[in-house]
Amino acid sequence: MTLGLYRPGTSFLYRLSARTKLGILALAGIGIFFVHSIPLLLSGLAIVLSLVAIARIPARVLWTQVRPVLTILLLLVLAHSLVTHWQTGLMLALRFLILIILATLMTLTTRTLDVVEAIAQALKPLRRWGINPEQISIMVAIALRFIPVLLEQIHGIREAQRARGCDRPIVTLLVPLLVKTLHLADDLIDALDARCFDPSSSTDQPEFLQAQHQVEASQTRQEAPTDRNSPKS
Amino acid sequence: MIEVIQVSHGFEAQWGAIPERNLGERSGLSGKSPKGDTSFAQPQRLVLRNLNLTLTEHRIGIIGSNGSGKSTFARLLNGLLVPDRGRVQVEGLDTRQHAKAVRRRVGFVFQNPDHQIVFPTVEEDVAFGLKNLKLGRGEIQQRVTDILNRYGLLEHRHHPAHLLSGGQKQLLAIAAVLVMTPRMVVFDEPTTLLDLKNRNHIQQVLQRLEQPIVVVSHDLELLEDFDRVLVFDDGEVVMDAAPAIALPDYVQRMTVQPMPRS
């Protein structure tokens, strides 16, 4: 899963600020739908792939992120070739592929906290209307953090239901999941409180880990091989 | 030092009963009950009743059966809960008026690390509390590195928290609290979800802490070398003694009658 799959590195994609990358991603996401030529889209794909190479992301890592989507994209092309025209399908598939690779690049080269801070920065003008960007950025961070936790809970509930002979637990999944999630939310509120989180306050130190990031960038040059190990259990 | 003075707290939610939140206004706690006492008719019941304690020892254990009120009690100690009646004072600060100051002084580690790790990666989660304390960048990075190093998590600093093992998650949860240098730490069942090896590791961590700690646990061995053990039963402290006395007493209380054969 791509979530929080940041890989420490030093190439220039890492040095770009999260805000810039987020902006580029947003612009690309809009702009690409005005491109209606397959050769242009193919060259776009080539550019994106060369970015992957520049960032020194191993092909294997990219492949694990992209592979699950490929089947859907193939089906998309197939469906379009039956209903409209295969070229339309290919164009759509290429657009999605480019955006997915770009987004993957973003997650691989940007730490979540930096993304969150970038979002908070971007939302700052909304403060005038009483919206607290700090709260929104914390919400995003928590959402990212708890997706795997919720998936684990779903897995647990399904196992428990299968063990009791419930073979199609899609509908019956919802109620226990909701109850568990509400409990989880209660615990989370306590945890935020216990660690002195104050949603009404805001710090104007958006990139408070930035300096450290640079220090680490110089360290990871030597440590890169060990950093690639995923945590052992 | 934590003082618990004349504390009664809450109704436990039970089927058929609506848990009341504003006890002070609506219930007998304000003195409106006919007899003026603090007991209530079923099915509502008090989770904690009339506790008076002064906690000064270095390591204090809390045991009791499920629903005996020990987790509620733990949450009173750092102001996560405010008692419906009575007061709790941490170093002279009332948890009702000085909730923030109290939480800075008293750290809290919850049972399930998955429910208290707030940020997606290890480093970010540890930095979160420090950011809330409004520390500068330099100090934050220094403290984060130090604490991750001390608990053997430095090599995982950029890893997603959900990929850590259960023991590592609990260590992360503890590190994220200790990095804020609380004067005391409350642990709510810190070893319940761990395997034996990780449990032993956490025990070692607890033994080496400089701060006074209060540990709620079902793990009696964990509390054997503590200075004081409180046994909770139905919202009351039924035993308050050294572990050598309190633990065997508790084991005896919990003896189960043999099940009838069916």
General description of the model:
- The complex is a heterodimer of chains A (233) and B (262).
- Chain A contains nine helices and no strands.
- With 233 residues, chain A is mainly alpha-helical.
- Mean pLDDT of chain A is 78; it is low at 202-233.
- Chain B has 262 residues and is α/β, with parallel strands linked by helices.
- In chain B, the strands form two sheets. Chain B has a six-stranded mixed β-sheet, with helices on both faces.
- At the A-B interface, α7, α8 and α9 of A face α3, α4, α5 and α6 of B.
In summary, what is this structure?
The complex is a heterodimer of chains A (233) and B (262). Chain A is mainly alpha-helical.
Biggest interface, chains and residue tallies: A-B, 44 and 47 residues
- Tell me, briefly, the overall form of chain A: globular
Strand element count of chain B: 10
Number of helical regions of chain B: 8
What is the residue-mean pLDDT of chain A, rounded to a whole number?
A: 78
**Topology of chain B as a string of helices (H) and strands (E):** EHEEHEEHEHHHEHEEEH
Q: What portion of residues of chain A belong to β-strands?
A: under 5%
Q: Which structural class do you get from the secondary structure elements of chain B? A: alpha/beta
| Principal-axes shape call of chain B | globular
| Uncertain spans of chain B | 13-43
> Rg of chain B, please?
20 Å
CATH class of the domain at 2-29 and 46-115 and 181-254 in chain B: Alpha Beta
Determine the fraction of residues in helical runs of chain B and give it as a percent range.
Answer: 25-40%
Head-to-tail CA distance between termini of chain A:
18 Å
CATH homologous superfamily descriptor of the domain at 2-29 and 46-115 and 181-254 in chain B: P-loop containing nucleotide triphosphate hydrolases
**Proportion of strand residues of chain B:** 15-25%
